[in-house]
Design goal:
alpha+beta, 3 helices, Alpha-Beta Plaits, Rnp2-like_sf, globular, ribonuclease P RNA binding, about 140 residues, Pop5/Rpp14/Rnp2-like
């Protein structure tokens, strides 16, 4: 039996000239991230790159904190990392993507980042609720 080994890429999208409270812009979804990464791989590495990254999967993305988690085959994680850094816009919104961590274990090493992400979501929600009460 063959064991498939993966790498987990934790990333953050940094948008230019936007704030978390801007509701006029549609929030990104994990599908938007997936399509953009696949297009970037196709543009930079051609059909070979697109074929090599068949196991690419966006496991988690939070539009509130702009932090996401990708799973890719261990042999081609550098290709995906490179494609992430070349992305300049998603859904016609200017952005840059910063890779925070690359790891081999899915939840143990990245659990701290996900807890941090949840804490940020609660802080953002509490600020929004406080602003609504004051108004």
């Amino acid at each position: 039996m063959v064991r498939l080994k993966h790498r987990w890429i934790l990333f953050e999208t940094l948008f230019e000239n936007t704030s978390h409270q801007d509701t006029s812009i549609d929030p990104l979804t994990s599908h938007d991230i997936y399509i953009t990464v696949k297009e970037s791989i196709q543009l930079n590495f051609g059909d070979y790159g697109r074929g090599c990254t068949y196991s690419l999967n966006v496991k988690y993305y939070s539009p509130h904190t702009n932090i996401g988690l990708l799973r890719v085959s261990r042999d081609y994680y550098r290709m995906v990392w490179c494609a992430l850094t070349f992305i300049t816009q998603i859904n016609s919104r200017s952005c840059t993507i910063r890779v925070l961590h690359v790891g081999g274990k899915s939840t143990f090493k990245l659990f701290g980042w996900l807890v941090f992400n949840l804490i940020l979501i609660f802080k953002i929600n509490s600020k929004v609720q406080l602003n609504n009460v004051k108004n």
